[in-house]
Amino acid sequence: MSEIENITDNDLDTAEYIDLEDENGDTVTFELIGRIEVDGCSYCAVIPEEEDENADSDVYVILKEVNKNDEVYLSTIDDDKEYDRIAKEFFNVFEELDEEEE
Length: 102
Hints:
Strand order of the largest sheet: 1-6-5-4-3-2
Strand content: 35-45%
Distance between the termini: 34 Å
Number of helices: 2
Radius of gyration: 14 Å
Order of helices and strands: EHEEEEEH
Number of domains: 1
């Protein structure tokens, strides 16, 4: 996945799918499954639209929203501590949603 991907604010507010460019320059469509704000930063959880039938359905990618020159980008999280903290937040959010559905 590219380190930074340009998106519009409208994409995250209304769309369920986001097109991102992978490391080979190919466009991959992801489904936006969650968005949270932690300490003033926004993060998105996405899964590939065409998921491999053998893939673990609980696996998702976490990306950070970055504002640059009045545009919103999605970026990978390079800091392990930040990633772990955000992953725990998403886990808690998704766990609460699962409990509500039961």
